[in-house]
């Protein structure tokens, strides 16, 4: 039997009861596979790796070593949530690495989007690898592979995935407990494992993170404006009940400035662009009609609270011709 093929008889996991049965089955399978050996997992804080981490903590506790690399391009509060949930609440064996300076230093003056992606992806592998080499006695590598990754492994998604390990790092085997699940099933399993809804129902967040939303050469001041404006957008969409209704939303800070006036003086500051889209498969996307009062409140807050910003825009462009991300 091809263990990478979902059996036709496998029931879709749609309820907490089915999720609990799946979890019990996987806990037993993982214990059987790894025995008393150690397992390493790159925990990004995304849905898939978080669910795998929670499942493996249940199965093998501290035999799991999680490594969270903060590349400095996370959304506000994201790395903190990973530490809070996994180290403080689930008592996981978690190594937290703040590699912000390392990533941002490598990205200085790099303007081209695909080069930025390559640098972020490559550096991620190097940081994770360095950490893995320091650890002793790791036998298995766990991964948050899900079924669409297997179906799409013809390369379509390859440039989208940050991570992976150099081929010379040898493990006895891979632990991929959710590899036959679709995304919606992974979310049901995550909830049954007790992970916070904000983590399990997270909208897609690109591997290169805020790096592709701080267009052109990333600078720390624009990155700060981006992170703060994104947090305001999320808060206000949440207040307006839009979080579950809009598929993906974020802000962008482009690398051009415009004239503004503040305290009677001319300024030359950044614009913030609000991007919100609805889609089924991310191949095409439409732009939702957001209530004017919500947009106005977000605009007022960004202009008042975020430094170096004098203009806020709402991007009305559907995909295509525009892509969802700005880079
Ligand atoms: P585009 O911009 O191509 O985005 O319309 C489609 C979806 O893919 C996400 N995206 C990425 N995800 N690494 C990722 O993991 C990437 O480099 C990347 N670029 C785009 C984007 O957020 C949207 O959901």
SSE layout:
Blueprint: H1 16-34, E1 38-42, H2 47-60, E2 64-70, H3 78-89, E3 93-98, H4 100-107, H5 113-134, E4 138-142, H6 147-151, E5 173-175, H7 183-192, H8 197-200, H9 220-239, E6 248-252, E7 258-262, E8 265-277, H10 292-305, E9 309-314
Parallel strand pairs: 1-2, 1-4, 2-3, 4-5, 8-9
Antiparallel strand pairs: 6-8, 7-8
Helix pairs in contact: 1-2, 1-7, 2-7, 4-5, 9-10
The structure holds xanthosine-5'-monophosphate.
Task: Give your account of this protein's structure.
- The protein is an alpha/beta fold and about 325 residues long.
- Strands 3-2-1-4-5 form a five-stranded parallel beta sheet, with helices on both faces. Strands 6, 7, 8 and 9 form a four-stranded mixed beta sheet that branches.
- It is globular, with a radius of gyration of 21 Å.
- Helix 1 (about 15-35) packs across helix 2 (about 45-60) and helix 1 (about 15-35) crosses helix 7.
- Strand 7 (about 260) and strand 8 form a beta hairpin.
- It is built from ten helices and nine strands.
């Amino acid at each position: 039997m091809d263990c990478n093929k979902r059996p036709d008889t496998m029931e879709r996991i749609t309820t907490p009861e089915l999720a609990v049965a799946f979890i019990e089955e996987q806990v037993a399978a993982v214990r059987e596979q790894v025995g008393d050996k150690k397992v390493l997992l790159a925990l990004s804080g995304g849905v898939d790796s978080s669910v795998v981490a929670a499942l493996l903590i249940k199965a093998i506790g501290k035999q799991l070593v999680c490594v969270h690399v903060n590349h400095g391009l996370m959304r506000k509060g994201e790395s903190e949530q990973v530490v809070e949930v996994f180290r403080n609440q689930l008592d996981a064996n978690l190594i937290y690495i703040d590699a912000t300076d390392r990533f941002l230093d490598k990205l200085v003056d790099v303007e081209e989007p695909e080069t930025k992606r390559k640098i972020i992806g490559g550096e991620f592998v190097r940081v994770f690898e360095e950490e893995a080499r320091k650890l002793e006695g790791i036998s298995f590598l766990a991964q948050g592979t899900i079924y669409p990754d297997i179906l799409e492994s013809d390369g379509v998604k390859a440039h989208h995935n940050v991570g992976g390990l150099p081929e010379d790092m040898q493990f006895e085997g891979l632990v991929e407990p959710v590899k036959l699940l679709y995304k919606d099933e992974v979310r049901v399993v995550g909830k049954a494992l007790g992970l916070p809804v904000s983590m399990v129902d997270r909208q897609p967040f690109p591997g290169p993170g805020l790096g592709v939303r701080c267009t052109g050469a990333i600078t720390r001041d624009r990155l700060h404006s981006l992170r703060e404006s994104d947090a305001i957008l999320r808060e206000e969409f949440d207040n307006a009940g839009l979080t579950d209704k809009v598929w993906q939303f974020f802000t962008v800070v482009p690398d051009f400035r415009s004239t503004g006036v503040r305290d009677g003086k001319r300024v030359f500051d950044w614009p913030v662009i609000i991007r919100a889209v609805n889609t089924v498969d991310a191949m095409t996307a439409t732009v939702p009609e957001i209530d004017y009062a919500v947009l106005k409140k977000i605009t007022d807050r960004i202009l008042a609270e975020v430094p170096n910003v004098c203009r806020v825009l709402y991007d009305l462009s559907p995909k295509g011709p525009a892509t969802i991300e700005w880079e």
